[in-house]
Amino acid sequence: MRILGKLFRKNDLKPVVSDHFAKNLSTIEKALGYSFAEPHLLERALTHSSFASQNNIRYSYERLEFLGDAVLQLVVSDYLFKTHLHLNEGTLTKYRTILVNGNYLSECALRLDLGKWILLSDSSRRGGQRDNDSIMADVIESLIAAIYMDGGYEPAAIWVKKHVISGKADYAAELQSFNYKGQLAEKCQRLKMGNPAFEVTKTTGPDHDPLYMIQVIIDGTVVGFGEGRNKKEASQHASEDTLKNWDVFFSDKK
Asked: Which residues are known catalytic residues?
């Protein structure tokens, strides 16, 4: 994998950081807990396509995201394989899905406060895209790729274990509730459909006992609804509704 990183670096990356980015470089590195030998990798990892288009820049984080997804999958798979020697492939796969799904990765990004460092176009920023769950998850993957390319597999693995795996220390216990929402995330990943988005559409009832109504969005289409006494319960019901009506919206994708 180190060879792949060298080829990627040789052919495709900007050699220096912009003056604007350089001013915040040390602050961002401190927040991430990693110092880059090649900081232009970090700038690319935080550059959204809207910012690139607005400023006539030829790169964004999208290619890094592709590589980072593969590195993340390998690190998590290796960790689970070596940690749970008694578990079968099916259970290990479910554990991995809990740790690499987009909803959880966006939580990791929030913990690191990545939103304020993502480079977005003016219109995207005004539209609230800085806190978009999908973008936040994508940036986690692009950062993993940037660290991998900068320092190799070991630094990337250390970073993933610290900022992704350790943040979900209860992943084994969570498997007990790994039902509809987990199945939906796993299905969307398998079919390359991105991460399902969950949006609260309405909250009713008194403050001490609210009822949440949530909708599921996949590929820009609202495909399921659910309600519950907390957001987790409502998300599970919305996921169940989505899975039951899958063929109505995605009959060509099994």
From this structure: 69, 141
